[in-house]
Amino acid sequence: MKKIALFLVIYGSLFHLNAQCDSEFSKYNGGSYLSETTTSVALRQGPNSSCPLVSTLKSGSQIFVLSKDGENSYYPVIDIHSNKRGFVSKSSVRLGEFYASSTTPMFNKSGYSRSYDSRIEVFNNTSKTLTLNIGDAEYTFSPAQKRTITVKPGSIYYLASAPGGLPSKGVQKFEKHSSYAWEFYISTSRY
Predict the structure, then answer these.
(1) CA angle, residues 152, 103, 180, in degrees to nearest 5
(2) Domains of the chain (ranges, CATH numbers)
(3) For a Cys-Cys bond, which of 123, 137, 160, 161 suits 146, CB 3.0-4.6 Å?
(4) How far apart are CA 92 and CA 78, in angstroms?
């Protein structure tokens, strides 16, 4: 009986730790900052020093801070160079230029759909791997890959990023019975 009780305590602790380390990037939909690390810093899976290590960022690494609010003294970030996502200690970051969320639609309405849900045709027109978050779902697109995804109608947060490029994020309204199209490319200038 003691072995079972001990297992439940350990399992419960691991479950609680995993819950602390699983954080949805969709909740960070405010203004962002193009920033850099001031020291070598751990990029962690969640906003806690006991969360698994994703990688270590060198001092001076460019990062995209999704929200200056963060959690537990950690910022949610994307490493610009590698496109790895995670959390870094606020004490190791110099906040840079404010980067507003996009106010113009990223996904262009392309027609009618028989489905109640909205259909989005996404084309990754780059030689990089694209990571796209729409709401709570995350999709990865290989270079030159085209795929159609389905979302519920309504206003939905999106975040698109690829290694070496500045992420794009915002909120877009998707209408029922509608199709949308989006071609991902990397711009060399900021509008």
Answers:
(1) 40
(2) 25-99 (2.30.30.40), 108-183 (2.60.40)
(3) 123
(4) 14
